Amino acid sequence: IWEYKKADQSRSSDVSATQHSFTILPIIKADGTLGEQLYVVLQEPGGRFPQKGHVKLDNLIVRAASTHIMTKSLMLDWFKECVAHPFSPTVSCTPGKEINDSDSDSNDSAHIFRPMLEYHWKKAGYIYSVIPNFKTPVQICFPPGIDSTTCHTSSCAEDSFIPCPHCNRSYCFGCYFIKYHKC
């Protein structure tokens, strides 16, 4: 269980103690939806997680390594866990035809991001549909004046940090990320 406490600024003579390197591999489908799992590689001392203090989620595959850079074995693990996983939909690609996704509504990605994610497939020439104008993630997640509102959680009086892309309610950092807001 995570407990949220306001962080105090501190100083460290060791820059590596305040910075972390990681790699994130999302699956982005042709219709702009995200895959069911997110794969993250964290650079950890000795390539191992501490015994305690990390959370496990069904839709998040996290691996510790001595470097955050993908290796052949990590790439094979990503393919096995996220691409060729039994719940992954079948994706077929034939030159000159669109990619067909058999199960595009089965994931949690917010509809507001779909045109932006679909745009990359169109730009690469894999799909031919017209992509509507879209807002960038910064425009969606950090609109002007977001910090002038109060967190939507009834027991919280903190300033808002981010609007939820699903329900459009604004939350502070702790309520959204640490307490893991989910609509």
TrEMBL record:
It comes from the Eukaryota. InterPro entries: Transposase_Tc5_C. It holds the Pfam family Transp_Tc5_C. This is Transp_Tc5_C domain-containing protein.
